[in-house]
Design a protein that fits this description.
This protein has about 290 residues and is of the alpha/beta class. About 50% of the residues lie in helices and about 15% in strands. β3, α8 and β4 form a beta-alpha-beta unit.
Length: about 290
């Protein structure tokens, strides 16, 4: 019942004009910062680990900016969830799509999407024009799980492969030339993961990107979503396909991926998804971080 009430309240938000929605989202983010103590602590721990050279005051300001960016993205995601096609297109403009198109004409494609706060908007916006598949972790709340699936497939029947199914359906999809939309920077536990530095901290990282690329001959095309000033929406940027990737040295390939994500984070650190327990899984013998 609470989930349905929360979704109904969020539905009301999507009716607001974009400048007002952005400001309301920033306020929402600051409220979450004040109320969600555990997640606030996660953000502070992540920032301390990844930016040890910043002062405490600088990290506090960055945490505050992150919650504003997160709250704004959450509020503006209501447009992607409920508004019509034209409004979703206006919310997020796309640049560099020729890089994706060129790779897609040549063979299988893995679209690599680092986990920035607007990634839900990114996925739904791109589904307007492109068929794709993506890995999906089922939500514990059944109502919210069904809601997310319905929203992510509202413009096109995107194939959502459950992580519980393994990668075989994904491989079949890639070989059938169905692009894979992949978020590479989440901690899903030790299974199928190797420890690779992320901002100098060992992080459990799935090496599926180089393995899938090697298995299927897929090109890896990065895509980023940038939050523009309040009221101006988002910019989605496709980058050129990576050259000489994979190298068949999968740990080195995974490290290259993490270093690329680090570069993207450094360009807009407040917009990265610091709420996630990125370092939850530890190497054997290491103490828990969170």
């Amino acid at each position: 019942m609470l989930t349905r009430v929360a979704l109904a309240l969020m539905w009301l938000l999507h009716c607001l004009p974009l400048p007002l929605l952005a400001r309301a989202g920033e306020v929402l983010g600051l409220l979450l910062m004040g109320l969600a103590r555990e997640r606030r602590n996660v953000v502070h721990i992540n920032l301390e680990l990844c930016f040890p050279d910043l002062t405490v005051a600088q990290r506090d300001r960055l945490a505050r900016a992150h919650f504003r960016a997160f709250g704004r993205a959450l509020a503006e995601t209501t447009i992607a969830w409920w508004s019509d096609v034209e409004r979703v297109r206006k919310l997020a403009t796309v640049e560099g799509k020729q890089h994706f198109d060129a790779a897609n004409r040549s063979g299988p494609v893995i679209v690599l999407a680092p986990h920035f706060v607007g990634v839900e908007i990114l996925a739904i916006r791109l589904s307007i024009e492109e068929n794709a598949q993506s890995m999906y972790s089922h939500q514990k709340n059944a109502v919210f799980d069904r809601f997310l699936v319905s929203r992510r497939t509202r413009f096109r029947p995107i194939r959502l492969a459950s992580r519980q199914e393994g990668i075989k359906p994904v491989v079949r999809g890639l070989k059938a030339r169905l692009p894979l939309f992949f978020l590479p920077d989440m901690d899903f536990g030790p299974r199928d993961a190797i420890f690779v530095p992320f901002f100098g901290v060992p992080a459990a990282t799935v090496d599926a990107v180089p393995r899938l690329a090697a298995l299927t001959g897929a090109a890896v095309v990065p895509v980023l979503i940038e939050q523009k000033p309040a009221g101006e929406g988002y910019l989605i940027r496709f980058l050129p396909a990576w050259e000489n990737y994979p190298s068949r040295d999968f740990p080195a390939d995974t490290l290259r991926m993490n270093r690329f994500i680090e570069e993207c984070v450094n360009a807009a650190p407040e917009q990265y998804y610091w709420l996630h327990k990125r370092f939850k899984t530890r190497p054997p013998g290491e103490k828990r971080i969170y």
